[in-house]
Design a protein that fits this description.
The protein is an all-alpha fold. The chain folds into 3 domains: 66 residues, D-Amino Acid Oxidase, Chain A, domain 2 (2-Layer Sandwich), CATH 3.30.9.80; 50 residues, no CATH class; 44 residues, no CATH class. The chain contains 6 helices and no strands. Helix 1 packs across helix 2. The longest helix has 16 residues. One of its GO terms (biological process) is fatty acid metabolic process. This is Oleate hydratase. InterPro entries: FAD/NAD-bd_sf, Oleate_hydratase. It comes from Fusarium oxysporum (Fusarium vascular wilt). GO terms for molecular function: FAD binding; oleate hydratase activity.
């Protein structure tokens, strides 16, 4: 099962030279296969016989990804509010990312705590933004657990790995199976 999302559905595709919003399911599959690196000769048959694509337009789902700035969304409990709050994806809370269930839950918790005077904070968001371990783990996952720089000549690769040995960076790269 694959979910394909097109942010700019009015733009022509790279393989199918027409807007995604005008494409059939088979044409969307062709475009997706092209972007996955499937050999171009195999794309028509795979799209026609190897997959079933049901196009669905969800025009408001894009609102999550539109450019925005602070103040675009209302505060959860606006200044002066005593008996109402804004909950969910389109209210403003700090250090969180929309499009998650947790975001909605945190906004509800924050509103209840503020409106009822409960002196308690909502659960912290995992601080992955600047955690190099999260980035290294993502890199490992994206490479299906394969080491980095396997394309380098062995002599250069050994030199670089040797330079990292005994360092914290080297230890982390071993831990995340990158070297």
């Amino acid at each position: 099962v694959v979910w394909v999302y097109g942010l700019l559905v009015e733009k022509n595709g790279d393989y199918v030279k027409k807007p995604m919003q005008d494409c059939t399911g088979e044409e969307i599959t062709q475009e997706w296969l092209y972007h996955m690196g499937v050999p171009e000769n195999d794309i028509p048959v795979l799209a026609a016989e190897g997959a079933k694509c049901v196009p669905v337009m969800m025009p408001y789902v894009t609102s999550f990804f539109m450019p925005r700035k602070a103040g675009d969304r209302p505060d959860i409990v606006p200044a002066g509010a005593e008996n109402f709050a804004f909950l969910g994806q389109f209210s403003e809370t700090t250090r969180d990312t929309i499009f998650t269930t947790e975001y909605s839950v945190r906004t509800a918790m924050e509103s209840v705590y503020k409106l009822t005077g409960v002196d308690r904070g909502v659960p912290e968001v995992f601080g992955s933004t600047y955690d190099v371990r999260v980035l290294l783990d993502a890199m490992c996952q994206l490479r299906d657990g394969k080491e980095l720089a396997t394309w380098l000549p062995e002599r250069i690769r050994r030199f670089l790995v040797n330079k990292l040995e005994g360092s914290q960076i080297g230890q982390l790269m071993h831990e995340y199976h990158l070297i």
